[in-house]
Structures are given as C-alpha cells and as structure tokens.
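Most newcomers find our protein records easier to grasp once they have seen one. The structure tokens are whole numbers drawn from a learned vocabulary of backbone shapes. The record below serves as our worked example for the rest of this section.
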Amino acid sequence: MTRSPYSSLPQRAFWRGGVAGASPFPPDIYKPKFPVTRDTRVFTAGSCFAQHVGAAMKAASIKVIDMEPAAPGLPPETAKRFGYGIYSARFGNIYTVKQFGQLVEEIHGAKPALPVWERNGRFWDAQRPGVEPEGLASPELVTEMREQHLSAVAGALRQADVIVFTLGLTEAWEYKTSGTVYPTAPGTIAGDYDPEAFRFINYGIIDIIEDFTALQDALAPLNPHAKWLLTVSPVPLAATASGQHVLPATIRSKSVLRAACDMLAEGSDDIDYFPSYELVTSPAHGQSPFAEDLRSVRPEIVGRIMQTFLSAHGLADAAGEDAQTDAADPQNDAVCEDILLDAFRPESRE
C-alpha cells in the first residue's frame, strides 16, 4: 500500500466519517487546552449567544461570577429584563473586542465620549443602554450607577480564573473624534444619530488582534493570570450598515472573528477556542439548527452544544444533564439589543 502522510490520521481528520455520516455533535471535536472544573471561577461576557454559555455553566455548578445580582424577591423575568444574572456583571451584551477593552480601560479612569444618551426626557448609559429598558430620571443617576457598575466589573475580573468571551460582531459605531465605540447604534434605543459625530466601522482581523492585545494589557493590572476561552456567536447579523447584502456581510463578519480567534489561540497556551459556531453551522444537521427567523439557534441545539463542552471537561454527569435542559429551556431566550434593528426595515416603516 502506498504510504501517505494521511495514512495514520484519525477519523476526525476526514470529512467522510468526521462530518458526513457522523453525529453533528462529535465528541472529539474539542480538546481543551486547560481544565474548567466546578471550582473554576468563570467570568462571562460577549454577544447574546454568550448568555447560553453562562446559563449552562451555572446549571453545571461551575462557579460563574455574578458581582451585580438582582435584589432578593425580584421576579426572574424582571431581573433578566434589567440585565441581572445574565453575565458576571450588569454590562449587557459586549459585541466587539474593542467594546470589552474600552470597559476595562474605563475602570482605570478612561472616559468614553457621550456617556449619557437621552430620549423623551429619560436617560440611558450609552455603554449599556439595554439594561435600563425605561431609562433613568437624570444624567446624574446614570453617572452614579455607572460608577457602582465599574467597581463591580473590576471585582469580577480580579476573581476570574477563566474569562469566557463570545465574539459577536465586527460592525460597530464609533464617535469620530475619540474612537469611543458603542454596543448599539445611536438612535436605536436612545440618543440620536448625527453623521457628523458618528461613523460606521467594520473591524478586520488585524484590528481585532490589536484590540485584544490592548484588552490584555488593560486587564493585566487587575488580573495578570486569567485564561481565556473564546467562542464565536453563530447568530447572523440582524442588519448591516456595510452596504452589502446582509448574507455576505454576515459571512464576512463571522469569518473575520473566527480567523482572529484562531490566531489568538494558536499564539498562546492561555487562550482556548470552543467551536460552538462550527457545531451550529455544520452541514451534518438533518434539519436547520435555526428557528423560523433563521437567526435564533434552536434550544435543543444549544443544549447539545453545551453538553459537548461539559463532556470535554469531564462535567457530563447529572449536573451536566441539568445544564443541557437549562440551555434548551425556551424561557432562556437570549436578550439581544441588535434585534431592535429589525424595526428599521423599510417594510416596518410603512
């Protein structure tokens, strides 16, 4: 038999057997670089898909940090609506690496431009507008709560053994003169869009690598030893301001994020990557992994993905099964500000 460098490779290296004819959730798709145990202190952040990751980890009794818990007695639905219990602090969705780095730099005293947005006499924290659905009564109250929030974020980051971060978008809106980036476009939840003040940006791979390096540098004084577990959100863009059709704009965005994660993970033993994106988009699925809107990942798919992660870390016992059930619960729908962009479709404006 002719020898080939492929002769000794395992089944997982071949499309036929590794994907075609195999489970859409192959148990050997992920080999962790470092362990995550029930004693691991985990900080969670990222786009809306990251909410499922945190919920499954909590259900598996992993020590997911929560430095801004809801007040006792607050109904779970209300708590979630106001951003409690979703991430390790009440910062809402962090869609870009630049946004995460900006948050950490703010802990050290940096000041974002236009920190308060207004609409109809109510006021919002421009860096987390989704956590106060009705806004607040004054700019001063926004500033006071922001200071409390930054203290909580700093405390959470100091505790973290592993930071789980789901990268969601490459498209963002910046304030032109300072480069301040926002989680939502001005005018979507609050504020007002001024083309003279704001600009659209679509980050590339090098931008993301540089932003991640800056994020690590900003984090070092708080916690120089934290490890990173990166994922890419499989949720498509709700809308694009790139000028492209939303489909190629989505593929471009996810491809850039995936390539950046690969470069970061290959360059450090302290950065791991979990292929949740690949597990959703795999052609091995017998039916679409997405719900009718073609954006939301079906709950049972989310559950199987998280079970794959927990199994790889040796946590697939009864608690792991609970985690799968929790992730598959329809009541655990993610809170996503970007879906609000759908209201600006031409059909919606008629």
User: Anything to note?
Assistant: The chain has a mean pLDDT of 91.
